[in-house]
Specification:
Layout lengths: L1 H15 L8 H22 L6 H24 L14 E5 L4 H12 L3 E6 L2 H14 L10 E5 L8 H10 L3 E5 L5
Parallel strand pairs: 1-2, 1-4, 2-3
Helix pairs in contact: 1-2, 1-3, 2-3, 4-5
């Protein structure tokens, strides 16, 4: 019963927020399953089967499966990845890439073949992050020359000319800003 409310609630919320401009088959299947799970106890009661506790457990299990499937599809969403070599010849400047989401972004961009510039305040932490990326992506063909360090403090206007100088050296730049304001 809770599956119907969770599934339909998440669907309506995401439609209202315009995250999904169209309905796909997965959402239709989830909504149909939610209605079936909602009507299952009534149908079993009409056939005089609801008194058996096995049907209670099966109904709860179907409800749990529906909730998990709804979570996976509507909340977590599909996992995306960049194809190997898709960013070959491109330069990505990533701030805050010595930890967290910036580090994971740097790994993904390096695996896709991009030259990744670690724009960080602390050179020692940036080099540790570069070593970490090289270690984690050794099977993906990431080379040390793909990973570079650039001293940049986004809270200081004095470091911006070094970024501008670096940008003029590279014509095609994709910029990913992943810094956390503390």
């Amino acid at each position: 019963m809770y599956g119907l409310f969770i599934c339909s609630g998440l669907y309506c919320f995401q439609i209202k927020m315009m995250e999904w401009p169209e309905i796909d088959i997965h959402v239709i299947v989830l909504l149909a399953m939610a209605v079936m799970v909602f009507l299952l106890p009534t149908a079993l009661h009409a056939k005089n089967l609801w008194h058996d506790h096995l049907w209670h457990v099966m109904s709860w299990a179907a409800d749990a499966v529906l909730v998990v499937a709804t979570y996976i599809h509507m909340v977590r969403g599909p996992l995306c990845s960049i194809q190997t070599g898709a960013l070959r010849g491109k330069v990505c400047i990533i701030t805050g890439c010595n930890t967290g989401i910036g580090l994971e972004t740097a790994k993904a961009m390096a695996c896709a073949g991009a030259t990744v510039i670690f724009a960080c305040r602390n050179e020692q932490k940036a080099h540790l992050a570069i070593e970490h990326v090289l270690q984690d992506t050794r099977d993906d063909g990431v080379l040390r020359k793909q990973l570079q360090f650039l001293a940049l403090d986004v809270s200081s206007f004095e470091s911006i000319p070094s970024l501008q100088k670096h940008l003029t050296l590279h014509m095609q730049v994709y910029t990913c800003l992943c810094s956390m304001l503390v």
